[in-house]
Structures are given as C-alpha cells and as structure tokens.
C-alpha cells in the first residue's frame, strides 16, 4: 500500500507541474499513447513557468531523495540541456528535522552506551538537517566541542523504495525513447544509487575525512576537522567542531578584511593539489560545505566539512588529463585528439584529422576571449559534448571531476570575479608534469618499487630459467604443429586426387557402356576394342587408387 500511495503521489506532482512535456510521446507504442490521452495531467492547466523551474519545483515537492537526485543530475551537462541543468543547480535540500529523542536513541543503540556516558553535553535540537542525516552539537567529557552526525531513521527504506521507482522510469525511457540508449538513464540512476548508499555509511565518510586530513596536515590551504573514531559507527559520526565564515557570505568576508584574490586562488590550488598530487578529491564542494578561517585575513584558510562524496583518478587518467590540459593551453589540438585516442576515451578507429578539426572548432572561439572571461568548467563540458559525436563513452571519474571543477570555479568567481583560472592552473600543471617525468619523479618511482624488486631478486634466476624452458617447449610445440599441418595438407591433397580419379573412372565406365550398346553380350568377342580400352582405364583409375599406385 505504501508503494501504491507513493506512485499516486508521484503521479499527482507529475501532473501538477505538467512534466508530460518531457515524455517522448511520439516514440511510444500506439496503445500506450492512446491510454495517455486520458492521463490526469490533461486536467491541469500548463503552469506559466519555464520547464527547468517546473522540474526543480516537482523534485523539491517529491522529497529529499528526489532533490538529491536532481542535484547530482544537474552536474550531468552531457545529458541535460543547459536551462534544465541550471535550474536543478538551485535545488535546496530543505528537510524538516526528526526529533532529538530519536537521534539520542540511534546514538545509544549504535555506540552501545548512553548519551550521558558518551558526552558531557548533548543538544537535542539539531544544528542542521539534510536528506540523509542531521547534526547535533555535543561536548566530550574531555571538554572537546564536537558535532554528532546521525543517519535519519528509516531513510534506507525510503531510498530503496524511491530508487526502485526511478529504475522503473529509467527502464521505460531507455526502452521506448529513441534517445534513451544514448543518454543511458539506467546508468545514471545506478550511479546515483551507489552514491546515496555510500552516504548512508558514516564510517566511510569518516575514513574519507581522515584521508583528506592526512593529505593536508599542517597546510595553510585548507583545514579538515578531526574524526573521533571511538565515537563513530555506521550510523553515527563524531567530528571536531569548527567555526568559520560561510564561504558564500561575501559581506562577512569583506567585513573581516579577507584578501579575496588570495582566497580564490587558494581554492584553485586546493583543487589541483587534490586531483594531481593526491588523486583523492572532495567532490561535494558546494558553498554549504565550505567555510573560511579569517583569523589571518591576508592569508585565509578554507575549512571543509561533509565528506560523503570523494573522487579518485587512476595514474594513467591523471597523466592524460594533465597532458590534455597543457596541450589546450598551447592550442596543440592535434595532441589533444591523439591523447583522447591513446587514453581510450574515444575509439581507436577515430580519424585524428576529423577529431582535431572538431576540437579546434570548439576551442578557437573560446581562446579569442580574455582569459578571465573563459569558464574552464564549461570549456571542458563543451569538449566532452563534442567528443560524444565521436562515440566517446561517459567517463564516470571525469564527470565527478567536472562537477567539482564547476563548483570550484563558480565559487572562485563569486569571491573574486577577475579570477583567471587558466593562468593559475597552468604553472601548477607544468610543475607537476616536470616532477612526474623528471629526475624527482623517477627517484620517487624507484623508491616505491625498489623494495619489491629486492624482495623478488632471489627468485629471478629461477624465473628466467623457467621462462627459457617454456620458450623451448613452445618451440617444440611449434615444430610439432608444423609437421601436423603438413601431414594434414598432404592428406587433403591425396583426398582431392582420389576424388578426381573416381570421377574419371566413372566417366570411363560410362563411355565403355555407351560404346557397347550395339554389341551382343552373348559373345565377349563382339565388344569393340575402344570399349576394352575404357574398361581398362576405369579399372586402373579405381583399383589403382585403392592400392596407392
């Protein structure tokens, strides 16, 4: 009954905002189109709002799971028109808090102690409430101020129910919409399913926070709060409480005398450091998760929270991405095209000249503008959209990277409108490439692999000996295979010669029979000489074949 009610609720909201506009009605089978003629949305007047805003309002009304799905979908510019993606970026996760007593009960059940045993103080009124969890202020018995993040009760059942409905809708779109297979709605929903279930595990988020804190230990760029592992479980996470100015509050930052240019450039440096130095980046860097430590206004420092979504890049992806970006800076479009093919991002059969021309068409109008007016994130978006024409598969790791870059760039431009992300990024990438392929990089690689090489060195003579034996056996097998092949070829040739002899023998017998039609079989002497010749020839062909002559 709950599922049925949820389906009716979705249908009501769908009709209210006339989202039938997004249905591929002309591509559906005619019986389904006939049924949809009597659908309830026909009884609702079309709202006088753009389609993107109607979609945003509908998702907000459907609840937190659909809101979070819309937030993630807003990053998929390769799938959505710009107007819809921009509207979905404005989605607000307004979720009423659940009672503080429920939060206390979850904490006690998860950690196996009472709240009084765990904390000196625990505020039952939440500091913040989101779709998956809410946060309470508390104090440890040591006097340390902390925040307690608690998973929303019953959220897993709601997620499972809504995901099932999303998968059903995605399946129908993929089956009946001509664009469905190209846009892969099922893959999008499955990616979201993985992301949302990962956010339900507080231990995973705590591990992400610990890794990021270790990567930036002692850094003046960003501060990551400490995790208290003794108070952390799958449903509860306790972290150090930090304070700072919300990064979106530019008035407060200006009042504190913060150097906005330094702050914006530090944001870019943090992003590229996470991506290229650490290959581990905070992938949910929207303004609600970022604060500023303004204790030193001329050298401000970021403070990050909420580590449920992180991204990683494989070493080969790091290298190809850096080389791609540097090639763009130098307008070497040929190298960009070749790198896309080498990395496997586009098929190997792609024609380099055609791909190079398409990239040049996208890039040249952008580079003719002042650098500070160029959006790096939207530039990458245009590039990926162009590459789709050449059968470029969606790269999940690059989609997450693009989402984060769009957030970072948007945040930087908000803080300092004249931010030149290109000139800030280029020296960093060039330095990173020099360190990677120069003597320092080679020395680092040697240090990383030398222990394994030394450990394996006693086994090397035996491994070499075994390899040589296998090569010898392969050579013998190769020779044996050649002898077998020659025997098979000889047998086949003999078989073909035998067939020819049989056919000729039959022809000779037929000729002998025809020449003796006039003879009297009562007397052998009546058979003409040519008949005997044909009979003899047939005998030699047939009997000689069997004897091998």
What does this structure look like?
Helix 3 runs parallel beside helix 5. This protein has 22 helices and eleven strands. 60% of the residues lie in helices and 7% in strands. The strands form three sheets. Strands 1, 2, 3, 4 and 6 form a five-stranded antiparallel β-sheet that branches. The longest helix is centred in the C-terminal third of the chain and has 56 residues, at 460-515. By secondary structure, it is α+β, with helices and mostly antiparallel strands. It has helices spanning 2-16, 30-36, 51-62, 64-73, 82-88, 100-111, 115-118, 155-176, 180-183, 185-199, 202-215, 250-255, 260-278, 315-329, 333-342, 352-367, 376-388, 396-415, 421-437, 439-456, 460-515, 529-547; strands at residues 121-122, 128-129, 133-139, 145-151, 222-223, 236-240, 245-246, 280-282, 290-293, 301-304, 310-312. It is globular. The N and C termini lie far apart (89 Å).
The portion of residues assigned to helices is 55-70%
Strand content: 5-15%
Spatial separation of the terminal alpha carbons: 89 Å
Tell me the radius of gyration. 37 Å
Shape: globular
Structural class: alpha+beta
Q: What would the average pLDDT be, to the nearest integer?
A: 76
Poorly predicted spans: 518-524, 545-549
User: How many helical stretches?
Assistant: 22
Beta-strand segment tally: 11
Largest beta-sheet details: 5 strands, antiparallel
């Amino acid at each position: 009954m709950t599922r049925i009610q949820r389906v009716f609720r979705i249908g009501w909201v769908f009709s209210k905002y006339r989202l039938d506009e997004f249905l591929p009605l002309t591509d559906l089978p005619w019986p389904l189109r006939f049924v949809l003629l009597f659908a309830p949305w026909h009884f609702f007047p079309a709202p006088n709002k753009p389609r993107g805003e109607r979609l945003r309002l509908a998702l907000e009304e459907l609840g937190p799971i659909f809101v979070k799905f819309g937030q993630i979908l807003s990053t998929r510019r390769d799938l959505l028109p710009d107007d819809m993606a921009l509207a979905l970026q404005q989605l607000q996760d307004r979720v009423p808090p659940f009672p503080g007593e429920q939060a206390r009960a979850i904490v006690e059940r998860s950690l196996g102690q009472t709240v009084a045993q765990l904390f000196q103080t625990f505020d039952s009124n939440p500091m913040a409430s989101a779709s998956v969890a809410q946060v309470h202020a508390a104090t440890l018995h040591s006097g340390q101020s902390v925040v307690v993040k608690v998973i929303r009760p019953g959220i897993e059942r709601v997620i499972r129910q809504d995901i099932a409905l999303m998968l059903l809708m995605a399946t129908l779109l993929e089956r009946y919409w001509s664009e469905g297979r190209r846009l892969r709605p099922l893959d999008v929903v499955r990616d979201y399913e993985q992301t949302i279930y990962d956010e339900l595990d507080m231990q995973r988020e705590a591990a992400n926070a610990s890794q990021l804190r270790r990567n930036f230990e002692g850094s003046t760029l960003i501060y990551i709060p400490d995790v208290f592992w003794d108070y952390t479980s799958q449903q509860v996470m306790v972290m150090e409480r930090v304070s700072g100015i919300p990064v979106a509050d530019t008035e407060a930052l200006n009042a504190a005398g913060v150097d906005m240019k330094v702050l914006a450039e530090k944001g870019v440096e943090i992003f590229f450091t996470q991506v290229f130095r650490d290959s581990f980046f905070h992938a949910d860097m929207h303004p609600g998760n970022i604060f500023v430590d303004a204790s030193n206004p001329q050298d401000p420092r970021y403070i990050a929270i909420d580590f449920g979504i992180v991204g990683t890049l494989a070493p080969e992806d790091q290298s190809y991405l850096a080389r791609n970006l540097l090639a763009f800076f130098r307008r070497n479009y040929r190298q960009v095209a070749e790198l896309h093919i080498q990395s496997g991002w586009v098929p190997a059969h792609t024609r380099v000249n055609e791909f190079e021309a398409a990239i040049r068409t996208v890039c040249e109008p952008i580079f003719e503008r002042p650098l500070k007016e160029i959006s790096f994130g939207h530039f990458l978006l245009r590039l990926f959209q162009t590459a789709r024409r050449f059968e470029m598969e969606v790269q999940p790791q690059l989609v997450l990277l693009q989402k984060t870059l769009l957030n970072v760039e948007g945040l930087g431009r908000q803080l300092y409108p004249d931010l030149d992300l290109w000139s800030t990024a280029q020296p960093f990438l060039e330095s990173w490439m020099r360190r990677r392929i120069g003597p320092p990089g080679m020395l680092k690689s040697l240090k990383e692999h030398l222990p394994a090489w030394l450990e394996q060195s006693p086994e090397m003579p035996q491994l070499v000996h075994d390899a040589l034996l296998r090569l010898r056996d392969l050579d013998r097998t190769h020779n044996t295979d050649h002898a077998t092949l020659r025997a098979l070829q000889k047998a086949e040739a003999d078989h073909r010669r035998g067939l020819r002899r049989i056919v000729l023998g039959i022809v000779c017998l037929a000729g002998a029979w025809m020449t003796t039609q006039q003879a009297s079989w009562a007397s052998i002497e009546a058979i003409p000489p040519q008949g005997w010749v044909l009979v003899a020839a047939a005998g030699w062909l047939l009997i000689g074949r069997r004897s091998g002559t």
